[in-house]
Automatic annotation (TrEMBL):
Residues 19-79 form the HTH tetR-type domain. Residues 42-61 bind DNA. It holds the Pfam family TetR_N. This is HTH tetR-type domain-containing protein. It comes from Actinomadura napierensis. PROSITE patterns: HTH_TETR_2.
């Protein structure tokens, strides 16, 4: 049987074109959000950067918030996959917690525009549901919940002194944001691995009191 004999087996060129447009628009939007922030980002600029017409952008996404939400959803799926991979072999709850934080930091340093657009949102990463916008807000809130769970597990294992898990999670997220913001503001004056090591070492000292 030839491919043409089975219409269902023939790839739909319209779907392929739509996916291509989506990829182009999301990449262009990430650059625009990074440079201008959500509020000042213009759909016309996104269309121009993507090399498509404004009408094509609106045929692909219902509006700017839909682009924003799709971008955050895709980045978060990729980030969670990275964290899951690197934390599987952690020897203890505290090591899993710190290894996960390092993976988040590394992912952000490797996705420069995504890091910038999150830093543009201001110092609200630790505010969870009260910070961010759309799916970004959901991402931040879920991240705090995950960290709080990691802190609880570390306390139960006797690796951390008793502390309110949500407070500790906020401290971790705030440290992550402050370290990465400083790295960007100082024009990346040191290697990303150095920044990540500094961050996780200080977090261990802060949470567990393991300073030499």
């Amino acid at each position: 049987m030839h491919l043409d004999d089975n219409p269902a087996a023939v790839p739909d060129i319209r779907d392929a074109r739509r996916r291509m447009y989506q990829r182009q628009i999301l990449a262009a939007a990430e650059r625009e959000f990074s440079a201008s922030g959500f509020t000042d980002a213009r759909m016309e600029s996104i269309a121009a950067a993507a090399g498509v017409s404004l009408s094509t952008v609106y045929k692909t996404f219902s509006g700017k918030l839909a682009i924003w939400d799709t971008l955050h959803d895709e980045r978060m799926r990729a980030l969670l996959a990275e964290v899951d991979t690197v934390t599987r072999t952690a020897a203890s709850p505290l090591e899993r917690l710190l290894t996960g934080v390092a993976a988040v930091a590394r992912f952000l340093t490797e996705h420069d525009e995504y890091l910038h657009l999150n830093l543009r949102a201001g110092f609200g990463w630790a505010s969870g549901a009260d910070g961010g916008r759309g799916v970004q807000r959901t991402v931040w809130s879920a991240g705090l919940d995950t960290l709080a769970g990691g802190v609880e597990a570390s306390i139960a294992a006797g690796e951390l002194p008793d502390i309110r898990p949500r407070v500790a999670a906020g401290m971790i997220v705030s440290a992550l944001q402050v370290w990465l913001d400083d790295w960007v503001r100082t024009s990346r004056d040191r290697q990303a691995d150095t920044v990540i090591e500094e961050l996780t070492t200080r977090l261990r000292w802060l949470l567990a009191g393991d300073a030499p």
